[in-house]
Amino acid sequence: MSFSLHGIAVSSGIAIGHAHLLSHTSLEVLHYVLPKPLIVEEIARFDAALLATRNEFSNLRSNPPQYAAAEFDAFLELHQMILDDPLLSVAPREMIEAEHCNAEWALKTQTEKLVAQFDEFEDAYLRERQTDVTQVAERLLKQLLGQPGHQPSPNRHDVDTILVAHDLSPADLMQFKPQQYAAFITDVGGATSHTAIVARSLNTPCVVGFHHARELINEDDLLILDGEQGVIIVNPDKAILAEYKLRQSELDLDRKKLKRLRGAKANTLDGSVIELHANIEKPEDMVEVKENGATGIGLFRSEFLFLNRDVLPDEEEQFIAYKAVAEGMDGQPVTIRTFDLGADKQIKGAERVANNPALGLRAIRLCLAEPQLFRTQLRALLRSTHYGNVKILVPMLSGAAEINQTLQFIAVTKQALDDEGIPYDRDVKIGGMIEIPAAALALNVFAKKLDFLSIGTNDLIQYTLAIDRTDEEVAHLYDPLHPAVLHLLSHVISTANKLDVPVSVCGEMAGELAYTRLFLGMGLRQFSMSSSQVPAIKQRVLTTSLTEIAAITQKILRADDPLKIRELLDKLNA
Ligand code: PEP
Ligand code: MG
Known about the structure:
Elements lengths: L2 E4 L1 E4 L2 E8 L17 H24 L9 H12 L2 H4 L1 H9 L3 H18 L3 H5 L1 H16 L15 E5 L4 H5 L8 E4 L7 H8 L4 E3 L4 H4 L5 E5 L4 E4 L3 H22 L15 E6 L5 H6 L5 E5 L13 H14 L4 E5 L26 H6 L1 H14 L4 E6 L5 H21 L9 E5 L2 H5 L1 H7 L2 E4 L1 H9 L17 H17 L3 E3 L7 H10 L3 E5 L3 H9 L3 H13 L3 H12 L1
Parallel strand pairs: 3-4, 4-5, 5-6, 9-10, 9-16, 10-11, 11-12, 12-13, 13-14, 14-15
Antiparallel strand pairs: 1-8, 2-6, 3-7, 7-8
C-alpha cells in the first residue's frame, strides 16, 4: 500500500531507495535466526560481551581519564547498575535460548523494553535516565559487534539505502562518508540540530521529526524522500516514481549548472563584494569546499574531531588537522572554532547528565571548566596559525567575564609557545560567536574586546525563542522571521558595521536562499554555510542590487505581523 508521511525538511534533494530500519540504539542491528547447535555458542558470546563491558566500567572507574568531570564516577556507577539490571544482563540470554535469535537482536529488543519502562516514569529525572540505558546498551552492543558471531553480510548497496532511525546523533552521522547512503529519516530532531547540519555536509537528503516512521515503514520498503518538502512516499506507484525520477535528474542538472559559478566572484549587481565561506566539520570536507568555490572557511566546528573516540585527540593530532586546513586554503581565511562540546555533542566516557543540556556546561563554559583540554587545543590552534590565515572563534560567549578569561587563556598559551620558541601568528585574530541574546544586546563589549564576530543563528534562535533545537515537539516554533530574531540580527550587523568590526553569519540561515537578500539589506557582507549551498547563494547574490532591496528590507524590519513579514520577504525575493 502506498502512503505518505510528513516531517521536517532539513537537507534538500530527492532520494529514491529502499528502507533500512535501525534499532533504537544508535548502532545498526540485524535480526537473524540461528540453527539450534549454535545457540550455546551465541549465549557464550553474549556472556563474554557482558563480562568485557563490566571490565570496561571497572577499568574506567579505577583509571578515570584526566578530563573526567567531577560526577564521572557516580555516572559510571549508575551505568554499572543499569548493566546489571536483569532486563539487560539476563533477559537477552533467555531470548536467545527461546527464540534462537542473534545476541544483538535480543539485546536490542530487551533494551527497548527497558527504555519503555523508563518512559512511563512520572518523575522527569528518572524518565531522562532512558538515555543512560541506551548508552549502556550501546557499549554492550559494541562489545558484541567486536566479537564476531554469525552475522550474515547485508546484501544491499548503501547508495540505494535510506536509513530509517529513531534518532541519529551527530556522532553517528560522522561515521558515514558523503553520499554513502541515499538519505536519512529520523523520528526525532529539529531543523538546526547538529544531526541536520552533518546530513547537509554529507550532501545527503534528510527529513526528521516523523515521530513514528520506524513503526510505519517496513524493512526494504521502497521510499521516495523529498528533502525540500519534508515528505516521504512509501511504496509509491509507478507514475509517482517516474515523476520523482524526473525531478531528481532535473535537480542534478541544476546543481551541475550552478557549479559552473565556482570560479566567479560573488559580487552584487551594484558591485559590492560578498564573501561566501564554508562551514566544515573535519579536514576531509575541504574537497567539497573547493568543488563549490567557497573563498574561505567561516566555521570549522573543531569539536567533531573529539567525537566517536575513546582517547581524545592530543595536541599533535589536533595541530596536524588544523594545519592541513590552513595550508589547504592557500592563504584564504580559515576560522577555527574552539570546541563546542556538551549538549548534543558529548565526549565519550565523560558524558554529562544535565537537566537542560543546551543551557548547561557547553562550548566555552566547558572549555573554561576543563582548562587542560582547552589549553591543549589552544596550543594546537596557535601553532597552526603559522601555516595559513587562521583565526580563532569562541562559541557561546555570554559576557565580559568569559571574554576576559578566554583572552587570558590565549595570552598565557602564547607566552608558553614564546618560551619554547614555537612560531605562531602574533596578530592572530580572536572572534566571538554571537549566539546568546545577551551577547547580541550587549554587543559593544564584544566589539571592543574581540577582533571579529560571527552570528550563530541556530543557537541565537534557540535561545531567543526558548526552543530546544533538537526537539521536534517544538520545532514548529523555530522561526527565523520572528520580529525579535530579525531585530537582534539587524542590531548586531548594523552595530558591528558602525564600529568597523568584521561580522559574518555562520548559522544555517546563511545558507538559505530565502534570507540572502534580507541579510544583504541588513548590511551583511560575509556569509558562511554548508559548502553545497555556496553556488545557489552565489547566484542569488549575483542577481541582487543592494540599492533595490534597501527600502523593502527596512519595511520588513519595521513590520511586526508575521504574515506581513512573509509577504514582504516574498516581494524581496521575487
Ligand atoms: C549556530 O549556533 O548557529 C552555529 C553556527 O553553531 P552550531 O550550529 O554548531 O551550534
Ligand atoms: Mg551554535
